[in-house]
Amino acid sequence: MTTPITPHGANLMKEELHRLKTKDRPWVINAIAEARAQGDLSENADYDAAKERQSFIEGRIADLEGKLGTSQIIDPTTLEADGRIVFAATVDLEDLDSGDKVTYQIVGIDEADLKEKKVSITSPIARAMIGKSVGDVVAVEAPAGIREYEVLQVRYI
Description:
The protein is an alpha/beta fold. It is built from three helices and seven strands. The protein has a five-stranded mixed sheet with strand order 5-4-3-7-6. Strands 1-2 form a two-stranded parallel ribbon. It is elongated and about 70 Å long. The mean pLDDT is about 95.
Protein backbone atom coordinates (compact mmCIF):
# COMPACT_ATOMS: atom_id res chain seq x y z
CA MET A 1 0.00 0.00 0.00
CA THR A 2 1.40 3.40 -0.93
CA THR A 3 0.97 6.62 1.01
CA PRO A 4 0.62 9.89 -0.89
CA ILE A 5 3.06 12.66 -0.05
CA THR A 6 3.98 15.98 -1.65
CA PRO A 7 7.53 16.63 -2.88
CA HIS A 8 7.97 19.14 -0.03
CA GLY A 9 6.91 16.54 2.54
CA ALA A 10 9.24 13.94 1.04
CA ASN A 11 12.14 16.40 1.12
CA LEU A 12 11.48 17.19 4.79
CA MET A 13 11.51 13.48 5.62
CA LYS A 14 14.72 12.93 3.63
CA GLU A 15 16.41 15.86 5.38
CA GLU A 16 15.42 14.53 8.81
CA LEU A 17 16.63 11.05 7.87
CA HIS A 18 19.96 12.46 6.66
CA ARG A 19 20.39 14.47 9.89
CA LEU A 20 19.58 11.45 12.04
CA LYS A 21 22.07 9.26 10.21
CA THR A 22 24.92 11.76 9.82
CA LYS A 23 24.71 13.85 12.99
CA ASP A 24 22.45 12.40 15.68
CA ARG A 25 23.47 8.74 15.35
CA PRO A 26 27.25 9.42 15.50
CA TRP A 27 26.72 11.82 18.41
CA VAL A 28 24.78 9.26 20.47
CA ILE A 29 27.31 6.51 19.70
CA ASN A 30 30.03 8.79 21.04
CA ALA A 31 27.93 9.63 24.12
CA ILE A 32 27.47 5.92 24.85
CA ALA A 33 31.21 5.30 24.49
CA GLU A 34 32.00 8.18 26.88
CA ALA A 35 29.46 6.91 29.41
CA ARG A 36 30.92 3.39 29.22
CA ALA A 37 34.37 4.82 29.92
CA GLN A 38 33.06 6.15 33.24
CA GLY A 39 32.82 2.63 34.61
CA ASP A 40 29.87 1.03 36.44
CA LEU A 41 26.93 1.07 34.00
CA SER A 42 24.31 -0.02 36.57
CA GLU A 43 24.20 3.45 38.16
CA ASN A 44 25.27 5.55 35.18
CA ALA A 45 22.51 8.02 34.28
CA ASP A 46 24.46 9.34 31.27
CA TYR A 47 24.65 5.83 29.84
CA ASP A 48 20.93 5.21 30.40
CA ALA A 49 20.01 8.54 28.77
CA ALA A 50 22.28 7.92 25.79
CA LYS A 51 20.89 4.40 25.27
CA GLU A 52 17.35 5.77 25.45
CA ARG A 53 18.22 8.47 22.91
CA GLN A 54 19.83 5.85 20.67
CA SER A 55 16.68 3.77 20.80
CA PHE A 56 14.59 6.79 19.79
CA ILE A 57 16.94 7.68 16.91
CA GLU A 58 17.06 4.14 15.53
CA GLY A 59 13.26 3.86 15.77
CA ARG A 60 12.77 7.17 13.97
CA ILE A 61 15.25 6.14 11.24
CA ALA A 62 13.34 2.89 10.70
CA ASP A 63 10.03 4.78 10.69
CA LEU A 64 11.21 7.34 8.11
CA GLU A 65 12.80 4.71 5.87
CA GLY A 66 9.58 2.70 5.96
CA LYS A 67 7.41 5.71 5.16
CA LEU A 68 9.68 6.90 2.35
CA GLY A 69 9.77 3.37 0.96
CA THR A 70 5.99 3.20 0.69
CA SER A 71 5.39 6.81 -0.33
CA GLN A 72 4.01 7.90 -3.66
CA ILE A 73 5.23 11.42 -4.35
CA ILE A 74 2.53 13.51 -5.99
CA ASP A 75 3.70 16.79 -7.47
CA PRO A 76 0.75 19.22 -7.59
CA THR A 77 2.30 21.17 -10.48
CA THR A 78 1.96 18.12 -12.75
CA LEU A 79 -1.67 17.33 -11.89
CA GLU A 80 -4.36 17.52 -14.53
CA ALA A 81 -7.51 17.44 -12.44
CA ASP A 82 -9.62 19.86 -14.50
CA GLY A 83 -10.24 22.17 -11.54
CA ARG A 84 -11.33 19.40 -9.19
CA ILE A 85 -9.95 19.19 -5.66
CA VAL A 86 -7.49 16.31 -5.39
CA PHE A 87 -4.54 15.38 -3.19
CA ALA A 88 -1.90 18.16 -3.09
CA ALA A 89 -4.31 20.83 -4.35
CA THR A 90 -4.39 24.21 -2.64
CA VAL A 91 -7.95 25.35 -2.06
CA ASP A 92 -9.40 28.75 -1.18
CA LEU A 93 -12.65 28.50 0.75
CA GLU A 94 -15.21 30.92 2.18
CA ASP A 95 -17.14 30.07 5.32
CA LEU A 96 -20.78 30.60 4.35
CA ASP A 97 -21.81 31.59 7.90
CA SER A 98 -19.04 34.04 8.83
CA GLY A 99 -17.71 35.06 5.42
CA ASP A 100 -14.17 34.24 6.59
CA LYS A 101 -11.81 33.08 3.88
CA VAL A 102 -9.24 30.35 4.43
CA THR A 103 -6.73 28.49 2.28
CA TYR A 104 -5.73 24.85 2.77
CA GLN A 105 -3.43 22.46 0.97
CA ILE A 106 -4.34 18.78 1.13
CA VAL A 107 -1.24 16.82 2.11
CA GLY A 108 -0.13 13.46 3.49
CA ILE A 109 -0.67 12.44 7.10
CA ASP A 110 2.93 13.10 8.14
CA GLU A 111 3.14 16.58 6.65
CA ALA A 112 -0.15 17.98 7.96
CA ASP A 113 0.27 21.20 9.95
CA LEU A 114 -2.69 23.48 10.63
CA LYS A 115 -0.39 26.41 11.43
CA GLU A 116 0.84 26.18 7.84
CA LYS A 117 -2.70 25.56 6.55
CA LYS A 118 -1.85 22.01 5.48
CA VAL A 119 -4.57 19.48 6.20
CA SER A 120 -4.20 15.71 6.11
CA ILE A 121 -5.91 13.80 3.34
CA THR A 122 -7.65 11.84 6.12
CA SER A 123 -9.07 14.91 7.88
CA PRO A 124 -12.83 15.56 7.70
CA ILE A 125 -12.39 18.80 5.76
CA ALA A 126 -10.08 17.22 3.17
CA ARG A 127 -12.38 14.23 2.70
CA ALA A 128 -15.31 16.61 2.21
CA MET A 129 -13.38 18.68 -0.36
CA ILE A 130 -12.08 15.84 -2.56
CA GLY A 131 -13.78 15.86 -5.96
CA LYS A 132 -15.37 19.30 -5.55
CA SER A 133 -14.79 22.23 -7.94
CA VAL A 134 -15.00 26.03 -7.87
CA GLY A 135 -18.50 27.13 -6.85
CA ASP A 136 -19.33 23.88 -5.04
CA VAL A 137 -20.35 23.91 -1.38
CA VAL A 138 -18.37 21.72 1.00
CA ALA A 139 -20.19 20.51 4.13
CA VAL A 140 -17.85 19.56 6.98
CA GLU A 141 -18.92 17.80 10.16
CA ALA A 142 -17.32 19.83 12.98
CA PRO A 143 -17.68 19.42 16.77
CA ALA A 144 -20.01 22.45 16.79
CA GLY A 145 -22.12 21.04 13.96
CA ILE A 146 -22.01 21.11 10.17
CA ARG A 147 -20.02 23.98 8.65
CA GLU A 148 -20.39 24.91 5.02
CA TYR A 149 -17.74 26.42 2.79
CA GLU A 150 -17.88 27.58 -0.81
CA VAL A 151 -14.93 26.63 -3.00
CA LEU A 152 -13.49 29.89 -4.38
CA GLN A 153 -10.36 28.64 -6.13
CA VAL A 154 -8.44 25.42 -6.71
CA ARG A 155 -4.73 25.64 -7.48
CA TYR A 156 -2.05 23.06 -8.16
CA ILE A 157 1.09 24.81 -6.92
